[in-house]
Structures are given as structure tokens and as C-alpha cells.
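Quick one, C-alpha cells below. Sequence please?
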């Protein structure tokens, strides 16, 4: 037993990680990473916006000596139908590996395809809440991830979120889905529009804050998350206001990576609600929803015994440069306003008649039980109301 740790304390499996290439211009390493991983006929999964911005071409230039096929129809929230469409391209081209170039949606779609291309049956079979994680085998197609936003950190995470055919927004988690390589090139984010910079940046902040608040025992994750929060909080406004600020872009990409490295520990009510609400209305941006829910959930978590015992809120406040832990919810609201994000869910068009469905989804979400206070349906309703 570790000294000072009671035997009944929650413990975590701690596993790090994948190979990460992190520097300006790192996209040039794509071909050598394909060779290392054993990918000879890659399918590049991306979206129309990444292609139009010229970012896809940088990846294709680095792959000039390989027979490459491109699927560029990733929707803002990947669906099982879009995974099937990519699978048809995969089969037609005889691909043997995946390269995701884009934000979390492209990377998550590629992870869904890594399952579908190598496992029988519908994707729902492999969803975490359906007990499907152990069914995802090492046969999953190899994946290299090249993020073009700084938010989800999916390039270093074992999970993916996909809207399945029955309309639920479900998580898929397995270490066999971990990308074989992550190529983090901040240069690819220099042209990211301000609002997408803000929304994805708040996603990274939510990951760092929620995983740090989780009561699960994982000291490495706590340290990584707290450092990521400090970096993101100090640089998100700079990156949003001046997209060419290389230092800010570097630190936001690092914070995004760190949030995902850490959230193997577990997330919480922010993500339970945003996953569910994103399933009710797939047009809503995940990072923006996280930004809307964070203030209310931090206030809700302040009453958790683990928050006080470990001074978690006080430590977050220090990382954010705030005077006290009670300042955190207001500081997040102020940051959202300075970044130009919406004032609340109502400004996004969220309707109260959706609440019952959102609450049902949140209660079933894989992040529900790792919040430091496990919310009741009534408490979720109050959190929704407070976030309107």
C-alpha cells in the first residue's frame, strides 16, 4: 500500500502513452511515421473546411510518395452513418491505415472507422456504456492523428464520441484506439478563426479542470492537468485575439494535449451534459457547450468533500491567477464574454423542453459517475437551468 493512501481510496489504471512529435513544422514527419507504424496505403480522414483552408494540402505534400486516398466529409459531430461512408472509401481503395487531419471530429470519426474496418457488427456493440470496450481488439486499424485545432486532445486519447444510428451520442474507449503517433504542429492552427479558437480552447480548459476535480487517484494526471490549465488560461485570450501569436498557439496545443493525457482519470458533469445535449442537437459545438456548463458545475462541485480535503479548487484558482476558489465560476463567465462566446445556453437556442431528454442522456453518460459529486436528475436540471 502507498503510504498515506487508504485501502478504500479509488484507484486508477495509469497508462502513458503514444509517440508524440511536437514542434512547428512537424507535419513534415508524416511519411516517416507511416513507415514506422507500417501504414503503406493510408486513408486520410478530414473535413471540407480543413481542405479549403489549405491545411490538408500540407499533409498531402508530406505524403507525396505514398498512394493516398482522402475522405473529406467529416461532419461537425461524427455519426455512425459518416463512419460507414468512410468505410466504403476504405474498402474501395484497399487502405491499410488511417491518418486523421483535423479537429476532434475527424479524429473521432477515424477512431470509429478503426473499429468498423476490423470488427463485425454495428458500432453500438463497442460503446462504453454498452459494455463494448473489451470487445475492441488490437486488430483496430492503425491511426496517426494530426490535430488542426487545440481543444479535444483526441490525438493522445483512447476514446471517441460518435452519434450512433439510434441518435445517442456515445463514447468508445479502448487503449487499442490510441493513435500510434500524434503529430502536433502548432503551425497548422495559425489560421484557425477566432471563435473556433475560443471554443476549442475552452474545451481544453474544461478537460483540465474536470479531470483535476475528479476524485479518482491519479497523481500524474493531476499534475499534467493543472499545468495544462495554467497554460491555457494564460494564453487562450492571446490566441483568440491574434491567431498568428506563435507562443500562444504552442501553449494552447500543449494544453489541449495535456487535458487529454490527463482525462484518462475521468471527466464529470460538464461532459455528461454536453455529450447529451450535443446528441439532442448535433449542431451545437461541444467546446462551446463545455464553456457554458463549467461555471455551474464548478460551483456544484465546491460542495464535494474531496474538493475541500485536497484543496482542489484552491489549487485551480492559483493556477488561474485568481484570489480565491470562490472566484472561479465568475472568472470563467468573464473569460467566455471576453472571448466573444455566447452568454448561456439560451443564446444557443437551447429549449427547456429538451431538458428531460438531456438529463436522461447525462445520467447514462460514461462521465456521469466520475464527477466528484454524482448528480441526481434534479441536480442536473438545476445545472441546466443555471447555465441558460
Amino acid at each position: 500500500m502507498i503510504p498515506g493512501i487508504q485501502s478504500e481510496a479509488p484507484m486508477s489504471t495509469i497508462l502513458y502513452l503514444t509517440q508524440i512529435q511536437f514542434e512547428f513544422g512537424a507535419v513534415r514527419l508524416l511519411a516517416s511515421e507511416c513507415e514506422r507504424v507500417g501504414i503503406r496505403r493510408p486513408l486520410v480522414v478530414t473535413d471540407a473546411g480543413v481542405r479549403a483552408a489549405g491545411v490538408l494540402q500540407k499533409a498531402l505534400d508530406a505524403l507525396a510518395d505514398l498512394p493516398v486516398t482522402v475522405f473529406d466529409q467529416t461532419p461537425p459531430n461524427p455519426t455512425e452513418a459518416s463512419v460507414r461512408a468512410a468505410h466504403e472509401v476504405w474498402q474501395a481503395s484497399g487502405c491499410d491505415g488511417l491518418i486523421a487531419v483535423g479537429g476532434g471530429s475527424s479524429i473521432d470519426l477515424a477512431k470509429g472507422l478503426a473499429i468498423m474496418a476490423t470488427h463485425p457488427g454495428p458500432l453500438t456493440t463497442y460503446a462504453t456504456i454498452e459494455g463494448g470496450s473489451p470487445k475492441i481488439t488490437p486488430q483496430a486499424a492503425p491511426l496517426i492523428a494530426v490535430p488542426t485545432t487545440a481543444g479535444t486532445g483526441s490525438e493522445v486519447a483512447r476514446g471517441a464520441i460518435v452519434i450512433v444510428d439510434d441518435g445517442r451520442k456515445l463514447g468508445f474507449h479502448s487503449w487499442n484506439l490510441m493513435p500510434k503517433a500524434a503529430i502536433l504542429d502548432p503551425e497548422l492552427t495559425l489560421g484557425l478563426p477566432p471563435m473556433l479558437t475560443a471554443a476549442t480552447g475552452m474545451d481544453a480548459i474544461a478537460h483540465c479542470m474536470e479531470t483535476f476535480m475528479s476524485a479518482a487517484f491519479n497523481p500524474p494526471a493531476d499534475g499534467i492537468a493543472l499545468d495544462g490549465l495554467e497554460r491555457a488560461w494564460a494564453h487562450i485570450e492571446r490566441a483568440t485575439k491574434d491567431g498568428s501569436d506563435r507562443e500562444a498557439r504552442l501553449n494552447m496545443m500543449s494544453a489541449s494535449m495535456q487535458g487529454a493525457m490527463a482525462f484518462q482519470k475521468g471527466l464529470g458533469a460538464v461532459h455528461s451534459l454536453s455529450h447529451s445535449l450535443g446528441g439532442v442537437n448535433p449542431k451545437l459545438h461541444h467546446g462551446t457547450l463545455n464553456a457554458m456548463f463549467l461555471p455551474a458545475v464548478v460551483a456544484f462541485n465546491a460542495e464535494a468533500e474531496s474538493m475541500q480535503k485536497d484543496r482542489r479548487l484552491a489549487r485551480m484558482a492559483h493556477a488561474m491567477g485568481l484570489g480565491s476558489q470562490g472566484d472561479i465560476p465568475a472568472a470563467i463567465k468573464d473569460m467566455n464574454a471576453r472571448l466573444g462566446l455566447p452568454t448561456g445556453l439560451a443564446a444557443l437556442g437551447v429549449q427547456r423542453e429538451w431538458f428531460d431528454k438531456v438529463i436522461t442522456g447525462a445520467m447514462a453518460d460514461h462521465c456521469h459517475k466520475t464527477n466528484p459529486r454524482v448528480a441526481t436528475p434534479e441536480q442536473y436540471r438545476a445545472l441546466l437551468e443555471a447555465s441558460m
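Confidence is low (pLDDT under 50) at residues 1-12. Strands lie at 19-22, 42-45, 69-71, 97-102, 143-147, 159-163, 169-173, 181-184.
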